[in-house]
Automatic annotation (TrEMBL):
GO terms for molecular function: metal ion binding; oxidoreductase activity. This is Gibberellin 20 oxidase 1-D. Keywords: Iron, Metal-binding, Oxidoreductase. Transmembrane segments: none annotated. The keyword Iron applies. InterPro entries: DIOX_N, IPNS-like_FE2OG_OXY, IPNS-like_sf, Iron_ascorbate_oxido_reductase, Oxoglu/Fe-dep_dioxygenase_dom.
Length: 321
């Protein structure tokens, strides 16, 4: 890689086909190095994205005091207003597995017009994302070892569930220099599936500490590994630091779907995943305890995460690469 390179080339997994054995080593390598890869042929049409984008624009253009009916001091708490994660970021959470009901209860409180269209589309998107997440986890298990998908999918991942965040980034009108839309963080999920619009701005931090662009590409979704899968895989899969930069004075729209273990699951890497002769890098921990630890230590802020899953359950040892 030349020094001037600022964007990262990630492997592209065709999720509509059985995984090609010759591709597995590229996937495993990228997941260890970057914790990111792309998927194509995911079955979600441009038309669905454009509907989601229009509906989300309508929602975020509501007055602030209306949106705050779903804010941190409300009963639903599905809306993250500006100045919590960043002055330029706001988002709406839609929880699964009943995405329709979750979207509908938010839409009802805001008295959104076309609320049933909004909820139906989110149900369609949420359930497609859940199906994709299963296929992604199966592909990742296959990349970790021959037969691992059969061995571990049912026993470890069958109770996973997902939630969605609809993100709206609004940079200042007079944008002299780039600003951080969402500060550096790692996701707490097993895997996250991200759709970013054509504005771009998602960046991943290299192991040398350099920020690299993940460029948007039509028809392609970004997948990243989260903290709890990093721990479960004994760091064979990496949860890397990423952020969002706003370089243009234009609104940016993105969707992040987080696929997570059930709250009560005890997370521990199976011996076979750790591999003979390697040490377990994490003590077993209960999933919800880590989520609470992060909540308490971040106070809702994303900037400069001080603590990660290593601080919470790491045994103090570190492997390179
Ligand atoms: O907006 C994006 O592209 C990424 C958002 C993200 O990293 C997150 O919500 O965790
Ligand atoms: Fe993220």
């Amino acid at each position: 890689m030349s020094d001037s390179q600022t964007s990262v080339e990630l492997p592209v997994l065709d999720i509509s086909k059985p995984i090609d054995p010759s591709f597995l080593s590229f996937l495993a390598e990228a997941c260890k190095k970057w914790g990111f890869f792309h998927i194509i042929n995911h079955g979600i049409s441009e038309d669905l994205y454009s509907k989601l984008c229009t509906l989300s624009k309508d929602l975020f253009s509501l007055p602030s005091d209306t949106k705050l009916k779903l804010g941190p001091f409300s009963s639903l708490k599905t809306y993250t207003p500006h100045f919590i994660a960043s002055p330029y970021y706001e988002s709406l959470r839609v929880s699964g597995p009943d995405f329709f009901a979750s979207a509908q209860s938010s839409a009802d409180l805001l008295s959104v017009q076309q609320s049933s269209e909004f909820s139906e589309i989110l149900q369609e998107y949420g359930s497609k994302m859940a199906e994709l997440s299963k296929k992604i986890v199966e592909a990742l298990l296959t990349s970790l070892g021959d037969g691992f998908e059969k061995k571990y999918y049912e026993s470890e991942f069958k109770n996973c569930s997902g939630y969605l965040r609809i993100n709206n980034y609004s940079p200042p009108e007079k944008l002299e220099d780039e600003v951080e839309g969402l500060g550096m963080h790692t996701d707490m999920s097993c895997v996250t599936i991200v759709y970013q619009d054509e504005i771009g701005g998602l960046q991943v931090r290299s192991q040398e500490g350099k920020w690299m662009d993940i460029r948007p590409c039509e028809g392609t979704l970004v997948v990243n590994i989260g903290d709890i899968l990093q721990a479960w895989s004994n760091e064979k899969l990496r949860s890397s630091e990423h952020r969002v930069i706003l370089k243009q004075p234009a609104n940016r729209f993105s969707l992040a779907f987080f696929w997570c273990f059930e709250d009560e699951k005890v997370i521990t890497a199976p011996d076979e995943v750790v591999g003979e002769g390697n040490v377990k890098l994490y003590k077993p921990f209960v999933c919800i305890d880590y989520l609470k630890f992060r909540e308490n230590n971040e106070k809702g802020k994303f900037e400069k995460i001080g603590f990660t899953v290593r601080d919470f359950a790491g045994n103090g040892l570190q492997i390179d690469g």
